[in-house]
Amino acid sequence: MNQHPPVSVAIARFEDIVARGLRALIDEDTSLQLVAADVPHECLAEALRSHAPQVAIINFGSLVVASEVRDLNLAFPATRLVVLANRPTAAESRQMLAFGATACLAKSTQARDVLHAIHLASRGLYVMPPATIEYGVLGGPELLTPREADVLELLQIGRSNAEIANDLHVSVETVRTHARRVYRKLGVRTRRDLRSRH
Amino acid sequence: MNQHPPVSVAIARFEDIVARGLRALIDEDTSLQLVAADVPHECLAEALRSHAPQVAIINFGSLVVASEVRDLNLAFPATRLVVLANRPTAAESRQMLAFGATACLAKSTQARDVLHAIHLASRGLYVMPPATIEYGVLGGPELLTPREADVLELLQIGRSNAEIANDLHVSVETVRTHARRVYRKLGVRTRRDLRSRH
DNA sequence: AGTACGGGTGATGCGCGCCTCACCCTTTTA
DNA sequence: TAAAAGGGTGAGGCGCGCATCACCCGTACT
């Protein structure tokens, strides 16, 4: 029922065992088409230029500097970059995404999950390893702060400002300030709207 | 070769068509095991408590407020939350992740990608829709700051600390401080390492 | 008329990242 | 050998988000 054209994939050079595993994995998946494999690190740009794969699997370990990922992404924006690292830290993973990678995976990731990630990345969805997202690392002033979320929750169940102030052990004025920001961020004008929305 | 126990999945209540599609999708996948389906929104917490599924697919549209996701995540940290929204904005997606969701998907996502995301989410990997990550929305003290990027650029073209200090109109000591942070963040030890490519 | 609510503005304190610079030390390089 | 670079530590100032509270005004409901 789903007839999609195969996803073209290029693989950078990896350690022998890893490379063989990756190749076998991708060969097994008929919806993935290998267009280049075992590409030496210094030939990556050339390979991306000539093959223009939808997905390129990059070896984090062979990166001389992390910003090479940014350079590749700027030069070949049509190719989604999947970075495979031995044991990426949360910071490294975030840096990879900040530099334009679409996915960052540990080599300890299960084989099937690598395939899942390749497919998702080929269609632009981001994949990040566990424990890389906490409140605070996601910028953006439109996000509700933890305190605003507390107020929102109580607003939603119909509590008055005075009751909320009592619940949270703060002044009514503080509650009103939080409520105003919640209204603005969620694009509503009254507490009523919070309950009738959706 | 891959003998993994199936992943238990619970599905919240969705629009009829969507619900049928989701069910069929998950029934087809032998590595997914449906433990609850068409769970009304008000029974979600109860369903998660009794079935303790590895993954729960949440209907963004039936959320009264976004912070319900946070509450569910706090109450059932072992269950990965996959939020399915009609057309999530970048802010909404980030808010979902900030509130503890492991994946946020648009309903326009291809069926197979929903399955991919469920599998990845079951093992803790984060999945985000396209265009939700730009440079800057990822906070974190480990990313290169603008000033560090300035220094990096000059370091890469071979300028000395004194020259960089002159270019940027700051002290040599400041340049050395920026350079140190750049080295640490990029995992290199010398400016040579930054140039060994190109 | 009194109370609660929505909306604007501003102030305060705290924490934290960023930028700047300084002083110390060792290693590398010219 | 002297200069440059790498590495550690710490300090001071600045900006900003967050949380808290205060005062102003107008409106809606009772």
Explain how this protein is built:
2 copies of one chain form a homodimer. In chain A, strand 1, helix 1 (16-28) and strand 2 (32-39) form a beta-alpha-beta unit. Chain A is of the alpha/beta class and 198 residues long. In chain A, helix 6 (146-156) packs across helix 8 (172-186) and helix 7 (161-168) crosses helix 8. A 5-stranded parallel beta sheet of chain A has the order 2-1-3-4-5, with helices on both faces. Chain A contains 9 helices and 6 strands, in the order βαβαβαβαβαβαααα. Chain A is elongated and about 65 Å long. The mean pLDDT of chain A is 90. Chain A has helices at residues 16-28, 44-51, 67-75, 90-98, 111-122, 146-156, 161-168, 172-186, 191-196; strands at 7-12, 32-39, 55-59, 80-85, 103-106, 126-128. Chains A and B meet through helix 4, helix 5, strand 6 and helix 6 of A and helix 3, helix 4, helix 5 and strand 6 of B. Chain B binds a DNA duplex (30 and 30 nucleotides) through helix 6 and helix 8.
Label this structure with key terms:
homodimer; 198 residues; alpha/beta; 6 strands; elongated; DNA-binding
